[in-house]
Amino acid sequence: MSATTKVIKEVTAANDKYAASFTKGSLPMPPGRKFTVVTCMDARLDPAKALGLEEGDAHVIRNAGGRAKDALRSIIISQQLLGTQEILVIHHTDCGMLTFKDSELRQIVKDRFNGNEEHTEFLSFTNVEQSVRDDIKFIRDSKVVKPEIPISGWVYEVETGKIRSVSV
Amino acid sequence: MSATTKVIKEVTAANDKYAASFTKGSLPMPPGRKFTVVTCMDARLDPAKALGLEEGDAHVIRNAGGRAKDALRSIIISQQLLGTQEILVIHHTDCGMLTFKDSELRQIVKDRFNGNEEHTEFLSFTNVEQSVRDDIKFIRDSKVVKPEIPISGWVYEVETGKIRSVSV
User: Fold this and answer.
1) pLDDT score recorded for residue A82
2) Which H or E element spans position B156?
3) How far is CA A36 from its chain centroid?
4) Does B70 touch chain A (CB under 8 A)?
5) ipTM of this model?
């Protein structure tokens, strides 16, 4: 047992409530709506609420920026083993990835951890529409997603809760 | 504009509803509750509902299995740039990662994509408690997370909606 923190107390209390009225205990493993969302870890995004996902509907892959590079392993598993057939790449306005350069974060990690700078590619970007296009291209260029799989690009607006389409 | 699919029609309709009653347009970028969840992309998991997260509360990193290796870049950004100070690693029962061996999926990818087998490490596992322990160790061993940061391990039960603690 880990030491109990304030966060753990709050999270387990919330989970007790969730489990008390839980009715989704027999859903199948493959996503019912057969699609995968690739999006950012940002705290302001709730992909299930914002996109209308119920438990069992879709795979949701999240990382800093919603970058495809960190998502490719998961996309292969999602499609080749669990039958998903469509991808939505959703980046968002006011993303943390717009606020730094990789070289700056490398220096911060180097300074704070005495040179333990394991990860050197932080995948920051300067334009959120372009990062969506870049990531769709990355997935296409990987050649491990069938050409007929639709991949659409979106920007979620943290200011309005809306998603808008990115032309590819 | 991408071709409109059934999924896109449904997702945009759901998003219209979400945006129509959206009231969270001025949340700050750093997570208010200062923690990060690392969990699986599985469709049956809704981390926000299951853990009581509101928009703005916490970073949520998701990938196939909830593996730390794909999450480390994001964890560094979460902690060094956006001030989070605690990590919950949550894997789950009946995970797809328990159903195959890396070598099998490598062969599938090789067969289906004419040898375009870019990603060779799929991070499958055979025991969900052990995979949680392995991932906590991976994060600790990375030496890019301060030793005083609490990292707790959990298994989410897709059958009950409950999370249970994994002793480390």
Assistant:
1) 98
2) strand B151-156
3) 10
4) yes
5) 0.97
A window 40-59, beta carbon within 8 A of B: 41-46, 48-53, 55-59
Q: How confident is the model at residue B120 (pLDDT cuts 50, 70, 90)?
A: confident
Residue in B closest to A84 by C-alpha: B43
DSSP state of B54: P
B86 contact A CB<8A: yes
Cα of A131 to nearest chain B Cα, Å: 16
- A9 to chain B, any CB pair closer than 8 A? The answer is no
List Cβ neighbours of A144 (8 Å cut-off, separation of 6 or more). Answer: A72, A75, A76, B109, B113, B116, B117, B118, B119
What is the Cα–Cα distance from B122 to A31, expressed in whole angstroms? 19
What residues are paired with A38 via a beta bridge? A61, A89
**pLDDT tens digits along B50-60:** 999 999 999 99
pLDDT surpasses 50 at B103: yes
Contact (Cβ atoms closer than 8 angstroms) between residue B60 and residue B47: yes
Q: Count of A–B CB contacts within 8 Å?
A: 292
Taking the domains of chain A in order of start, what are their residue ranges?
33-166
User: Do A151 and B2 count as a contact with CB atoms less than 8 A apart?
Assistant: yes
Model pTM greater than 0.90? yes
- The reply to whether CATH 3.40.190.10 applies to domain B33-166 is no
Give me the mean pLDDT over the A80-84 stretch: 97
